[in-house]
Amino acid sequence: MARWWSSWTRSQDEVEAGELSTQAQERGAQAIAACQRGQSVSVHGIIRSVTLRPRATAPTLEAEVYDGSGHISLVWIGHRRLSGVDVGRPISAHGRVTCPQGQPTIFNPSYRLYPEPAESPA
Fold first, then answer.
1. How do residues 34-69 score in pLDDT, each as one tens digit?
2. How far apart are CA 48 and CA 71, in angstroms?
3. pTM to 2 decimals?
4. 21: phi > 0 → left, psi -120 to 50 → alpha, else beta; which?
5. What is the CATH number of the domain that holds 88?
6. Which of 3, 7, 74, 110 is the most buried (most CB within 10 A)?
7. Considering its fold, how many domains does the chain have in total?
8. Higher confidence at residue 1 or residue 39?
């Protein structure tokens, strides 16, 4: 009974986090919260933000990905835009984790994009 009630009273954010965690596990991805510096990892989640950071040497494109357990930054050096890397898009990425300023980051990851989830009727 308690499990049923807790699932009934969970917030939309908690439900989304659970769904994202399940999708990541189904794709064989590691939970972002468990990623440690120096590890070679595969992660899966939803792109929450995309930022172009112009630099004197080379531009960088940064995408923040959320998998229900945590966030990781994917950074592509020398890119201003990558087709399909957009907010709301599911993505799987693979690479070595670094932690500049304490934020888990993968530089120049290999990645795969998935179709955006269909909107559910209101």
1. 999 999 999 999 999 999 988 778 899 999 999 989
2. 9
3. 0.80
4. alpha
5. 2.40.50.140
6. 74
7. 1
8. 39
